[in-house]
Amino acid sequence: MSDAVSALQRIMLVEDEEDIRAVAELALEAVGGFNLRTCDSGRKALEQLAEFSPQLILLDVMMPEMDGPSTLRAIKETGDFADVPAIFMTAKVQPEEVNEYLSLGAVAVIPKPFDPMTLSDRIREIWEGLA
Amino acid sequence: MADQNSADVARKLALLKMRFREKALCALSSLQQSLSRVHSSGVDSGEILSAYQSLHRLAGSAGTFGYSALGREARELEQIIKPFVEKAPGTHDDVSQFLDQSFMRRVEGLSDMVSGGGSESTPTGSALEEGLRDVAEPMVVLVEPEPDRARSLASALTHHGFIIHSYSGLLDVPERVLVDASAVLVRDSLFSAGGNTFGTDVTLPPIICVGSVDGFDDRYKLAENGADGFFPEPVDVPLLADYIERLIGERLELGKGRVLIVDDDPELLEHYGLVLEDGGMNVHKVRSPSELLGALSEFQPDLVLMDVQMGHYSGPTLARMLRFDPEWVGLHIIFLSSEDDREFQVDALSKGGDVFLTKPISDSFLLRAVRVKCNRARQLAKLASRDSLTGLLKHSLVKQEVGKEHSRCRRFGQDSVVAMLDLDHFKLVNDRFGHRTGDLVIKGLANLLRHRLRKTDVIGRYGGEEFLVVMPDCSLENAVEALQAVCEQMRRISYTSKGQEFFVTVSIGLAPLAAFENGEEAIEAADQALYVQKSRGRNGVSVFGEADIGSAGKVVQCTS
Do A113 and B64 touch (CB under 8 A)? Predict the structure, then answer.
């Protein structure tokens, strides 16, 4: 994974809740300095993948229509973006659920609620760990 | 600069927290209603599922906004419901296992955790904590060495919905208070004598001097020291409140424009994006013209910045095509091109484009041009839809909003409320003190509504002294509470005209939107409730359908 050693810039966040998107924008753009693209559904995320070309994808688990795991499966099927590391952000953190997400190919799970002031540090840590 | 940035983040976080709190209160009240329906009329798998989802959302988000205890409690309740979510309907016994008195009490307790201020200390401390202080109302710093004057001005402004932090000298104002303030009021003599100790950073709040200096030289001195405004004594408080309000409005608009950039050159696209984002603009980038229409309706920009030629697509032709759609007829477009052929530019402009900038263009010039154009676009859009006196939505538009909200809340089974407001004895104010004073009172109520209601509430000026408000996703009880607070605050605002002090009250009628066939009927019902309130002695809130005990023969029946 040669991309992982380069600097992380473009992050895509898929999250249906407007408030969480807004706070994540603050946490990742204003605090973290990343280039963030937010999508309010898995479908929109799939549509915007090619144009935005994210280096990392953050996924909420519980979303209407297409939930986080289905979105990740669909991303893996695109081929082009199958290797983009994905992280689940969820309030559900039972061990068996974490295992389920990791088996889908997620690289990490960040439990919700997250702290907006330290979220980008956490993500950078994970990114550096991927190198 | 780093401090400035973190102060900015903290302020935005505080706003998000406020929004979260309002939404959480509404969500919790519908959760309670939904659970008590399950409790009384048996199990409904849909309602249990939505209760579970609503608790799950709170569990996941509350902590982020500083309500950790709320999040933990919601998590526990969520875990209790979880096993019942996938159960087949009709198994009432199972439900009574969790849906008992103690569970309901805990659900009710969640609301208290939100409304109790929630300023529980978060383990993350400093920056976040600082940002999560409640800032429900705009904060104004007052620097006045004379304690009596300070007290009376502060209390008068408080009634207009401002939070006042009072200091006796310029140097006493802590920096973190200063950056949070919406405006600073300073005794003029402090400012002209000691000079401005705040600096002239553009991110500082506007500084308004109050006092009695007169004459050209004195005022010039204030302007030279960086004052943004001057208010003569004796202070006309409603006029001052309106002035502060306008300054706040201007600042909010500054640089917050939404710009959609279309350029097929990825490097230029990235570059323009960075320049405008650095300048505080909200930017969305599109590389292929074919994505333009989708991006437009999703991003809703104030302005489109477009290359004049992208592959085989011509910018001016795209502009003409965009305007096929009635929604984008008024869209503002700036073309960028190295093409400096006059003929071509005229051609581009005649096809509907608005401005033509010739490359190479300096970053600062680009930013300035986009900013000016954005503000202009916003002002025009606002003029078309807003009432010129109050800045609220015009009659036809707010009515339209009621219609939209009606179908929305019908579809999602939510509670929404329509309110009709009318200033009491307003004709007397106009007759006795003149229209200028009357206008000030109208603006006063408009500003109060803007401060006291939620961001999501739609406020419009319905007629002369009549206002119409739509409160989406809000229970009748919450609406009554919010509007009673408006009445309470309105009657405390003191107006002075022709040397006479007077107060104006407001009467309000409410109706639950979903209970009516259409928006018009709901407005009609709110209007009836308003007249019930007028007959009850004005200055207060009436709900449509509440029995009118006061006057005989005017009992109104609610259809729901």
Answer: yes
